[in-house]
Amino acid sequence: xRVRYYSHLQQSTGYGRAAxxxxxxxxxxxxxxxxxTLGPRDPGWIPAHDGLSSSRIDDPDAVIVHxxxxxxxxxxxxxxxxxxxGPKLVAYTTWEALTAPExxxxxxxxxxxxxxxxxxxxxxxxxxxxxxxxGRDRESAxxxxxxxxxxxxxxxxxxxxxxxxxxxxxxxxxxVGAWTARKNPGGLIRAFANxxxxxxxxxxxxxxxxxxxxxxVVALAATGLExxxxxxxxxxxxxxxxxxxxxLHAEADVYVxxxxxxxxxxxxxxxxxxxxxxxxxxGLGSDEFLAGTSADLIDGWESPAQVDVSFAQASDGAVTLKxxxxxxxxxxxxxxxxxxxxxxxxxxxxxxxxxxxxxxDYNVAQRFGYAAVATLVLDALEQP
Length: 384
Prior knowledge:
By secondary structure, the chain is an alpha/beta fold. It has two domains: about 1-155 and about 370-380, Rossmann fold (3-Layer(aba) Sandwich); about 170-365, Rossmann fold. The protein has 13 helices and 19 strands. The chain has helices at about 15-30, 70-80, 100-110, 120-130, 135-145, 185-195, 215-220, 240-250, 265-275, 285-290, 340-355, 365-370, 370-380; strands at about 1-5, 30-35, 45, 50, 50-55, 60-65, 90, 115, 145, 170-175, 200-205, 230-235, 255, 275-280, 295-300, 300-305, 310-315, 320-325, 335-340. The strands form five sheets. It has a seven-stranded mixed beta sheet with strand order 3-2-1-6-7-8-9, with helices on both faces. Strands 12-11-10-13-14-15 form a six-stranded parallel beta sheet, with helices on both faces. A two-stranded antiparallel ribbon has the order 4-5. Helix 2 links the parallel strand 6 (about 60-65) and strand 7 (about 90). Helix 1 packs across helix 13 (about 370-380), helix 2 packs parallel to helix 3 and helix 6 (about 185-195) packs across helix 11. The longest helix has 15 residues, at about 15-30. The two termini are about 15 Å apart. About 40% of the residues are buried.
């Protein structure tokens, strides 16, 4: 199989991380890859990256475009690729809200032979109101949707807990993500501050590379508590290597999230691989790997609502609003709103019971290892 793969492989984003893992899985399955990078400039060929070999392929069997939904078609246009006039065209993409705009979704199905998504929530978001028409055309589009989950290198050792005595340190809740309204770190801080107070042996570490201290201070103030009343809440805003992130998972106890929308949630996936206990909201993309585990999946949502996707950030003494518009998400997008009281209760219960370890009733490698995901990819590519 000869595949040309357009992706953000060289970036330190979720898309970049997912692309690197998938490329490694395909190389392990003896797929010949032509790696093309996506970024601020036009697509460019990657001779090699992080041990991955890349060959120029003029006549690939398939072309995979792995990027934001609205950018997939642009890549085809720039590269002169057209459905039905050459190799099989695949868009591997995602969506974080409950519903997706009809125009974006329809263009994907018009331009590509197959659409791959990492989890069922994205497939459902596309189908809910993103596809117009009915009957045979709609059935054909839905039939061309494949769920291709994220994968990991199951040949590498998983992180081990680093505490000499786990009972002597603070009980550490932690979160990893971008400081955006969708990820909702402010809501997580409020839930934690509602569950614990100053003097508690519980602490919350938020790792958000590039987040300003001003934004963090605004989020603390939104709890309504005085500084002396707050429990231990720590911001880690430096960029960390994948190895350093693995250490963060190894040194913590419970991964917790208050996200309003997730198509997968790679940090939670990493927490699962490290065996950390997880508290998350039921109904998001993380269900793909958390269903069938001992994670606390909270079925405590407020009614779906159109929520503001801006967040407060202090700048030069004034509070301004920064809007996060990635993937076309706006205040008109329909998101889930987590019940923070339910989240507080789950954190307090985990602290009281010292619940640190996650168990699964399935073999993680058999579902999400390189070989497993590569098999799903090759099966999809072989479909007419």
